[in-house]
Structure formats: structure tokens, C-alpha cells
Amino acid sequence: MYSRWMLRSLIASLLATSAHAAVLPEIQKSSAWYSNAEQVINTKLQQNTKDKAKNVILFVGDGMGISTLTAARILQGQMAGQSGEEGYLSFETFPYSAQVKTYNVDAQTPDSAGTMTAMISGVKTDVGVIGVDEDIERGNCATVKGNELVSAVELAEIRGLSTGVISTARITHATPAATYAKSADRNWEDVSDMPEAAAAGGCEDIASQLVNFEKNLEMRFPGIDVDGIEVAMGGGRRHFLPKDAAFNSADARSEVEGDRTDSRDLTAEWQATYEHGAYVMDKAGFDAIDPATATKVLGLFNESHMQYEADRANDIAGEPSLSEMTSKAIDILDNNDKGYLLVVESGRIDHGHHAGNAYNALNDTVEFAKAVQAAADATNPEDTLILVTADHSHVFTIAGYPKRGNPILGKVVAVGSDEPSLASDGMPYTTLGYTNGRGFADLGSETNADAIYGIDPNAGRKDITAVDTTTPGFHQETTIPLSSETHAGEDISLHAKGPGAHLAQGVVEQNVVFHLINQALGLLND
Amino acid sequence: MNIKKTVTLCLLVASTQLAAFAHQQSISNASPKRCQAEQLIAHYEQTFGEHHEHANIATHNPNHNHNQAQQQKSTVQQLTLLRKGNRVAHYNPEQKVANIWYLNRHKQQQLTRVFERYQQGIEYQADELKAQQQWHYVRTLVDHALLASMSHQKASGAGCQRLEHYTLATATHEFQLQWLPALALPQSLVVTDKQTHQTSRLQLVDIEYGDKVVEQFTVWDALPTTDYADVGDNENNPFLAKMINQGFSGSPNAHAHHHH
Predict the structure, then answer these.
(1) Does B119 map to a domain?
(2) What is the ipTM of this complex?
(3) CB of A444 less than 8 A from some CB of B
(4) Cα of A482 to nearest chain B Cα, Å
């Protein structure tokens, strides 16, 4: 029963709401901006959130900071003939998001090793180390023992879920490695990368840990029975093959493809362990995999990193795209009724930025968004939590006052003008730029961002009046000359959809990502 | 020009420094004893920045005399070319840096740059080789187009000792080449700028054959390497951090004089 005071308040409130609504002019209420935004709120009010998921897919765009998202969404729209600014990358339409603090325990600006360890184990750690806590001494094998963390992938295996790890970088690179390996140094990708003392001290290289994942996990936790990572796909064959030309793959680019100095052929060892598994190294092999029957897949599609998406057609043997790898992995993993945990990294966004080449960084981000959409299309939103985030940012900026619809890779053209704006030095400038790095280069139609490394750094202002800055081979200007553009320290974003997604909110530490996965899958429940 | 060619040529110019100027000097008599063109070590001396005759340039620049005096100083550098089948290395003994190319069966050039002082190497992306000219330059130190455009003047000797003389005069430069066709190497290459009278010289000093080539490549192959794409993620490695922060390209002559 309402009290008289409450009734009075309710009537007053209703009258006030009605009066406020009447205040809005028709031009405001009928504006598409207004009604579209109102619809967003109405949609959020109707959301029915669940806490538990059967499956989790964690997408990580390496080096995909906020400015990268903004620029990539504009590029995506402009490639579709639109203005660009009004669009969204696939995951930017997810209902929940958070702002993520990325620093490492010992570093203000982080690296992928420390950040991915935080996301996949729930514990922040030092820069440059994989799957171990901050008590580690980087590069010291003796400090690994006792400091190993357990990753969500390992926990998922123990609970009987299927697991998958995909990357366009080497599968032994820092981000994918943090899902399955423990290493005092991110660079110990194979035995030849390790100091003799580390190998003699019992530390195992990262590639070997991937192949021995099942055995190692069962040794660490006696009594458990796991069946190993179901799907591992990426680049990095060199770390799995002996340093012997006789083991070269069909599309080896080096005289001797393998780097291993212990004569081990890890691809053969993997095939011996999983006799019904499929080891593939090119697009034809990838296409031949039947996801309905495949139980284990190891795909190593390049000697080192896989190609940039824009350069993929130039690969000798052919490589699948990130979208294709994601779709196939889901088709294989969802054969397990208990569910799965899949980790997908777009590793070369980071490399495009390091090379100071926005075209490739953004193009790979657009492909990353397609992979997320492919995952959303292939899964049931009622039982699958999809998390999309980055590990860190880059010193990549969107600057000046370009007019709406101005080509994001172009020169700044101001509102009301058709000519590029001129800086105080009388020269035009691009909307996109880098604070540091190698600086300007005009490589025209070159689709490999790393081609820049054959040219000396060229920082500072350049006259780009006659240069087409929208070509794949254009490398943006920079202020501070460094031979590789650097990571940045500001926060990145987390986007979430599916059961448990509503817990992604606010400003959070990066290691919260692990707890979102754990909460949704109940990895640590008895 | 093809963009990928441009990138490759930048690396080549950095390694051989042929775009400088020196004046003509006597030519070494070093010549091959045997024809082993696919496995050899050729030692060259490069001379840059000497004037064939003094330029007489009027100027009101108060720094002119100082600058001119600096420009007249010649620079002498050593360059060692090593060949082993589809692998070619250009080594600068002063910098202790080697550029090592490998031509793979897909006609891609893979470059690894070895820094002996740091006992590490950097791998560059394989460059698609759409024209044989690039590999010709790496393998012989002479641009294929230049060789094809030169006029044959005379020849002496026979077999492995055959020496061919070529010349070319363009609107801006004069070229004189003494070519060893059996080895596909220059005995000497002298380039003179007609306007500045500056010349550059590439002079063969000595050639070695035998197992030393294999041994040297084996030593370099044993060094750890890093993809250049990974350099930016390795600020904790002192060598790579130096690459990131100081931006040194590592080219054998990166700190040498440039007189373009």
C-alpha cells in the first residue's frame, strides 16, 4: 500500500517525465541519432544475462589499441563505400565492454608475454616471461621451478573440455605460448635459442612444450588424464624441425628451414603421439581436414610468422586466413559435448605497427573482426562466451581535423575543403601517424610491411605532396627515430558477448580476463 | 622501378657503397688460379671520395674550403665476397658485419645480416625475386643492366685467366670495367663523375678457394638469429635494444662517408 507521501511523489514524477518529454522538439525526437541511441538503451534493458557458458572463445588482437580500433572501423567502412566513422567492427557491437590496464609487474609499458600470462592465468607477471609469476628472473632457468602458473587452457583440458590455440604469428610466439608453456624467456622458442645452462638445467623450449603438452600436464598433476590440445595452428615451423635441409618443407624460404640443434623433428614426434592427428603445412592440407572427424590438428603454415592478410596471396604454398582457421577450429572443437576453450590471436597487427605501416596493421584488424564474426555466426549465443581484447597498445595516433569521410589512410583535408591542409612548414600531413619508429617510406604497392626493414629509418617531416598515402606500402611519418616502433602504455578495451559477458565492465586489471573465463566455464569448481 | 627491387637495391648500396667517388689508381694483378666460380672468397678494396682532378668551384660559402678539403679525402674500405652455390655473403671486416643472401628454389632472396661483434644475426623477409638482375648484382657486385650496356674493348688471357675490358660513357659518368668472365667477378670497376671528377673504385685484391668458404658459412650459421619483425618486442635483449633505440641499420658501411 502506498503512503500518501509516496503517491504524491509518484504523481509528481509522472507529471515531470511527461513535461520533460514534451520539452523535446520534433527535430530532436525524430532524429535518427536520437532514436538509434534510444534503441541501444532499450536493447540493454531487455538483456537476459546468464552466468555459465559451455564454450569460451578468447580473441586477442596483438597491439590492437583503441586508436587501432577506431581507424580500422573507419577503413572497414570506407572499403565498403561508406563514410566509415559510423560503422562498427564486429565485436564493437557486443553488449558489454571494459577498459583494461595492461602494465606488467615490472614495466609501465608492457609486452605480450607478461600481458597474455596475466589474461590466461589470472596473475600479472614480468615483461618477457611466459606462464610464470613475478618471482621469476628472466633468462634464469633455475628460477622457473616453483613459479609456474596454471593456464585456463590447462584447466580446461583437466576438466575434459576441448582446447585450441590459433595465431597468425609463430605458434611459439609470446601470446600463444602463454596458453601452454612455462618459460623464463619468451625467446626460448626452440632449443637453439636457449643458453646451454638453461637446457642443461632442465628447462624445455617452447615448441617442445607444445608437443609434450599432454605428457607434461599429466606429470605435473599425477592422476589426471588429459588428451592434449585438439587444435594448434599458426606459423613457426622452424622451431619444430631439425637444423638439417633434409627436413625442409615444400615452401621453405631459408636454405635450412629448421633451427633445432637437438636433431628432434617435433612434427614427427607429434604425429607419433597422435597417430590419427593431421599435421598440415599449407592451404591444401588445411582444406583437406574434415572437421567432422578430425580429432587433433597441428598446422604450421610458415617457417616464421604467417603472412600479413594483405600479403597472404603471395605465400608460396598458400595459407588459410585467420577467419578460416577460426571457423575450422570451432567446427572441430564443438564435437566435444562438454564444451571447449579456444584462444585466437591476430599476431601481425602488432608487426604492422612495429614497421610503422598503418595499412597492414588496420587490414589485419579488419580480418580479425571478420574472424570474430565467423565465431559469432558459428556458435550459439546462449552457450558461448566470446571475449575480444588486446594485449597492449601502440604509439599510433589519429590526428588533425579531417572532414567526415576523409580517407583514413589519406592526408588531412579539413571540413569544407577539397585540398589537403598544410602544416606550419607548408607541407601536408596524414591523419594517421606514429610517435616513434622508422618513419616515412613510400613503397607503393608493397603489401609486406616488413619490407621497410631493408631501408634505413627516416624520421621527421617529409614532403608527401605527391605521395599517395593510401597505398599498402606507405609508412607513416614519425617524430622520434627508432628502428622499430614501440608499444604504448595506455589502456585497451575488452568486448564481451554471451553467458558471463555482463561481468566485463568498468576499468579492470588485465588478469581479470582469466576470471571471466573461469567464472563462465567453472574451471575450478569441484 | 619495381618497389621490391628498390628495397633490395638499398640494401645492396649499403653493403657495397659504389655511389662514391675516387680517382684512378693502379690495378692489382690478383687473378684466379683455378675456375671455381661457385665456391670462392674474393677480397676487394673499395676507394671512395678521391678527385681525379681538383674541381674549380667558385663559392661565397665561408665553409667551402673546409668542405671541399673534406670531400677530397678518400675513404678506403675492405669488402669480402663469399660464394657457396646459391649463397653469397658480402663481409665488411672493419665493421665485422656480413650480409648473407640465399637464393631459394622459389626465386626468393633471403637476407640475413650477421653482427659478429654481437654474435647475433637479423633475418629479413624473403624478397621475391622477379628479375635476375638483383641476384646478379649480389653475386657479382656489378649491376646486370650496367654490364649489358657496356662496350667490349679488348680481352687478354684465356680460360680462367681471361680478362675482358669494358667501358661506358653516359651523360654524367664514365665506367671502366675489367671483367673476369670465368668467375663472373670484376677485377676492377672504376666509376668517374664527369662533373665533380670524383671516382669510386672497386679493386680485386685476392681470391681464395677451398674449405675456408664452407667453414666461414658454418660459423655464421651457428649464430642465433632474430626475425626483424620481432626486434620491436625484444627491448630487454641489449643487442636488439640497441637496434630499437639507436636505429642503426647495421649495414656494413652504415657509418661510412656518403657522397651522393
Answers:
(1) yes
(2) 0.81
(3) yes
(4) 5
Mutate to test the interface with A, among B1, B3, B129 (most CBs of A within 10 A): B3
Q: Is B124 in contact with A448 (Cβ distance < 8 A)?
A: no
Whether B190 is covered by a domain: the verdict is: yes
Among the options A67, A90, A97, A112, which is catalytic?
A: A112
CB pairs under 8 A between A and B: 109
pTM of the shown model? 0.87
Q: Is the pLDDT of residue A2 over 80?
A: no
Q: Determine the angle formed by the axes of helices A112-121 and A512-521, rounding to 10 degrees.
A: 30
Given pLDDT bands bounded at 50, 70 and 90, which one contains residue B54?
A: very low
Residue A345 annotated as lining a ligand binding site: yes
Q: Do A255 and B86 touch (CB under 8 A)?
A: yes
What letter would DSSP give residue A260?
Answer: B
The CATH number of the domain holding residue B183 is 2.50.20
**Which domains are assigned to chain A?**
55-395+493-521 (3.40.720.10), 411-485 (no CATH)
Task: Give the separation between CA A185 and CA A225, rounded to whole angstroms.
Answer: 29
Q: Confidence class of residue B254 from pLDDT cuts 50, 70 and 90?
A: very low
**Is there a domain that residue B53 lies in?**
no
Å from B25 to nearest chain A CA? Answer: 32
Which residues, 6+ apart, have CB-to-CB distance to A401 below 8 Å? A412, A414, A415, A421
Shortest distance between the Cα of B114 and any Cα of chain A, in A, equals 14
* A127 vs B87, B227, B236: nearest CB: B236
Structural domains of chain B, count: 1
Residue B240 lies in a domain: yes
Is A317 an interface residue toward B (CB < 8 Å)? no
CB contact under 8 A, A192 and B224: yes
Confidence check: pLDDT of B252 > 60:
no
Q: Please count the other Cβ atoms lying within 10 Å of the Cβ belonging to residue A268.
A: 15
Alpha carbon distance A40, A26 (integer Å): 20
Q: Of B46, B36, B48, whose CA–CA distance to B90 is shortest?
A: B46
* Backbone angles phi and psi of A458, in degrees to 5: -140, 70
With CB atoms and an 8 Å threshold, state whether A453 touches B125: yes
Note if A112 is an active site residue: yes
Q: How many angstroms away from the CA of A231 is the closest CA of chain B?
A: 25
- A217 has a pLDDT exceeding 90: yes
| More confident position, B56 or B36 | B36
- Check CB contact under 8 Å for B231 and A138: no
For B6-107, strand residue ranges (E) read 39-51, 75-84, 87-92, 97-103
The boundaries of the domain holding residue B115 are 39-48+75-246
- Of A409, A465, A460, A468, the C-alpha closest to A442 is A468
Determine whether the annotation assigns residue A259 to a binding site. no
Q: Is the pLDDT of residue A298 over 60?
A: yes
CA within 13 Å, CB half, A103: 5
Beta strand A162-170 pairing with A340-346: parallel
